[in-house]
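Q: What structure does this chain adopt?
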Amino acid sequence: MSVERLAIVGTGLIGASIGLSARRAGVSRVVGWDPDTEFLGLAAARGAIDAEADLDAAVAEAELIVVAAPVGELPRTVRDVLARAPETSTVMDVGSTKGPVCAAADGDPRFVGGHPICGAETRGPGRATAELFDGATWFLAPTAATGAERLRLVHGFVSALGARPVVIGPDAHDRLVAVTSHLPHVLANVLLNQAGSVRIDGHDPLQAAGGSLRDMTRIGGANPRIWVDIFLDNREALTAALAEQRRALEQVERALESGDAGFLARWIGDASGHRRRLLATAFSDPGTLHRLRIHIPDRPGVLAGIFQALGAERINVEDFDFDHVSPDRGGTLTLLVAGDDDASRAADVLEQQGYGVVAAPVIDE
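A:
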């Protein structure tokens, strides 16, 4: 990677994480600017960037400029940066949609669209980490005018941060994330609003919800300041994905009305095969994965105790999620453990600590 001078415009979670990761990768000069002075100060305090007083100062000598502004502000900010940046600078963005921002670049050969597929359900530089991009797919969306040397520079930079660069057209990118990211967020909100807005013979569905609704709605209610802009920016592709979703639901409705068990069995079987492929992208051997669910109290040190006990037995947790219900009721900890033997030993360890464990193979659920 040949980048020695990097400028980051926008120092939230993604921008500050890029700064930390770039420093880890050996970039000698990392500067940043943000109209939010609180974010800018926090990012500087974390060591992610050296703060600049204004945008002109930030971009003046940068080889690469990363624009990490909110999606709704990206087109305007990218135009502004391109107008101020030296001709020798390459400019990229990290927004969740590519059509509007690539159009805003207006054929400037210095611009490369980008979108790292990672993040967290938090915001702000205080949660930034240099490891955020390790192993993550990072889409690069050059325009027809993008110079080849600019794309090579960005490709090398992204690889140096530990991510896996994948080149894709702006339109194809937006249609892809409409299905894989934006549609799931819409459906999570629909499910929550449907269950939360009704009473069934006086019962509140949310009070009776099990793991299925919790698993399906983990991303529901995400920050509207971010997601309203994403939905509207990608409205065309998202509308098409919703129309396809509607047609699929109508097929299921017709099968239920007609009692078509054959269709339902094939439909579930297809979903099982697709889920295996999905898991195979995240885990080397998804067929060995087991999901362990345990209820834990809301008490300091509980999570640390569980992971220390599993670590002492050399049991590796592939992934985990904690669904907090309330301080009184605690929540549900879900662990992914690979291998029949390790999953069985993990269940034994947890039961010895006094927890009830519900375990099942992931791909058979």
